[in-house]
């Protein structure tokens, strides 16, 4: 599920990748709503939650990490693809 | 203008190419540069309006700044014997209005060219405002050119959009245009999306009796999913077109280039087609990376995942299966928990989707 991918990217310390995935999720959500494939009762919540998620993800350059984060980041880079 | 020439004899009229509510278009010969041109002469009832006349010429001059293989070149604009006219590149062939329904393989190269022309204009700060099949000219070699930049704006500025011709173009009006709100490049993207929808299905996104009817449908109605009308259209292409048709301009592709990118990705065509006529603009600059064309499969997988969730949700909604299934039931659905962090919010969203997909 796309939202899982967003969560995984964020947990792995890849906010830029997560941002891209979240925006992709938003496009897909909008397309699905426009295509009438999301029941009306769910549209508001789904649309607003996805929009909120997109707005909260900040693509911050990795160089700005704090000392404490440097050690953790070494472990988190494992398995991170492009 | 005389019967056979205008601009002091510079343009010799050969025949009438077309006549609309606003103007007559002639095929003419440029006696100085020895080439065929199309000359659009403002209709008499509009030529009498000094304000419109001035706007018409002003916007035409702005449009003349555009130079792109997918935009009809404006060569000259002027006024002769009280009749404003525009001299344009003559494009042989026909319009998309004359071509009717096409296959998605035929539509895509045309749509990409339209995106390229629009992006060029948007980069120059011009919004077309009247993208419709009749304004998309296609030469015999399948090169598409967008005509009539600036005309619609001149009409809007002088409140002339309520003339009878508007109904013929209303099918492609964006919701914000129909509501009389401010327009932007997103307006052209919606209109192009509506054109693509019609080319693929043979019918516009909304079928309506009047402008009021259209407005009501754009506010409360649902566009029939493209594949419900034409099942041969690939799902990712449906998603791209429906994205362009988003009711809220903020939710459409951020630019014509982005729309082209989505269309090309959906069709597995090169992201930057090699045609000289196709977009050479990069996708809209983002603050984070975008997916390269070679990973179009990600988009397809994503669309399939959303479609799966949506189908399951759709099954939930019609589970009642009565004749009133179209009426959404006012279920007390709770939103996904916001979460202390974006990651938590994403996980909550996943959990919410799973809960409602069962």
Radius of gyration of chain B: 23 Å
Oligomer: heterodimer
Low-pLDDT stretches of chain B are 157-165, 270-331
Rg measurement of chain A, Å = 15 Å
Instruction: Compute the number of strand runs of chain B.
Output: 9
| Gap between N and C termini of chain B | 72 Å
Mean model confidence by pLDDT of chain B: 76
Form type of chain A: elongated
| Tally of separate helices of chain B | 14
- Judged by helices, strands and strand pairing, the structural class of chain A is mainly alpha
On the 0-100 scale, what is the average pLDDT of chain A? 73
Give the helices and strands of chain A as they follow along the chain.
HHHH
Largest sheet of chain A: none
User: Which two chains have the most extensive interface, and how many residues on each?
Assistant: A-B, 44 and 58 residues
Helix fraction of chain B, binned, reads 40-55%
Number of helices of chain A: 4
* Series of secondary-structure elements of chain B, N-terminal to C-terminal: EEEEHHEEEHHEEHHHHHHHHHH
What separation lies between the terminal Cα atoms of chain A? 18 Å
3D shape of chain B? elongated
Please report which band the strand proportion of chain A falls in: under 5%, 5-15%, 15-25%, 25-35%, 35-45% or over 45%.
Answer: under 5%
Q: How does the helix and strand content of chain B classify structurally?
A: alpha+beta
């Amino acid at each position: 599920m796309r939202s899982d991918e967003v969560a995984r990217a964020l947990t792995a310390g890849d906010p830029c990748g997560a941002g891209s995935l979240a925006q992709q999720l938003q496009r897909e959500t909008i397309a699905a709503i426009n295509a009438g494939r999301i029941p009306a009762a769910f549209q508001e919540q789904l649309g607003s939650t996805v929009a909120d998620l997109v707005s909260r993800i900040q693509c911050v350059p990795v160089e700005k990490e704090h000392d404490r984060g440097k050690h953790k980041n070494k472990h988190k880079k494992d398995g991170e693809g492009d | 203008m005389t019967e056979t020439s205008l601009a002091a004899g510079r343009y010799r009229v050969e025949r009438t190419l077309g006549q609309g509510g606003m103007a007559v278009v002639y095929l003419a010969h440029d006696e100085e540069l020895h080439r065929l041109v199309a000359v659009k002469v403002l209709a008499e009832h509009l030529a009498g309006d000094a304000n419109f006349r001035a706007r018409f010429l002003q916007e035409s001059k702005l449009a003349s700044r555009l130079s792109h293989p997918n935009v009809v070149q404006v060569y000259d604009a002027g006024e002769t014997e009280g009749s404003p006219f525009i001299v344009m590149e003559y494009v042989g062939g026909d319009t998309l209005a004359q071509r009717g329904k096409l296959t998605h393989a035929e539509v895509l190269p045309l749509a990409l060219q339209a995106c390229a022309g629009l992006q060029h204009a948007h980069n120059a700060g011009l919004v077309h405002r009247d993208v419709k099949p009749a304004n998309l000219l296609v030469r015999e070699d399948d090169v598409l050119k967008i005509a009539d930049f600036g005309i619609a704006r001149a009409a809007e500025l002088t409140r002339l959009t309520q003339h009878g011709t508007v109904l013929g173009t209303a099918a492609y009006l964006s919701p914000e245009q129909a509501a009389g709100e401010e327009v932007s490049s997103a307006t052209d993207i919606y209109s192009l999306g509506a054109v693509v929808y019609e080319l693929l299905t043979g019918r516009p996104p909304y079928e309506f009796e009047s402008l009021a009817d259209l407005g009501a449908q754009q506010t409360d109605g649902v566009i029939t999913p493209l594949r419900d009308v034409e099942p041969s259209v690939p799902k990712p292409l449906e998603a791209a077109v429906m994205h362009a048709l988003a009711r809220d301009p903020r939710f459409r592709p951020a630019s014509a280039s982005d729309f082209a990118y989505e269309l090309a990705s959906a069709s597995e065509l090169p992201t930057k087609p090699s045609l000289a006529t196709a977009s050479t603009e990069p996708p809209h600059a983002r603050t984070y990376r975008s997916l390269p064309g070679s990973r179009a499969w990600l988009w397809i997988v994503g669309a399939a995942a959303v479609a799966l969730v949506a189908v399951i949700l759709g099954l939930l909604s019609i589970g009642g299966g009565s004749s009133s299934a179209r009426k959404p039931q006012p279920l007390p659905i709770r939103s996904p928990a916001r979460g202390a962090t974006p990651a938590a919010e994403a996980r909550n969203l996943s959990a919410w989707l799973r809960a409602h997909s069962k």
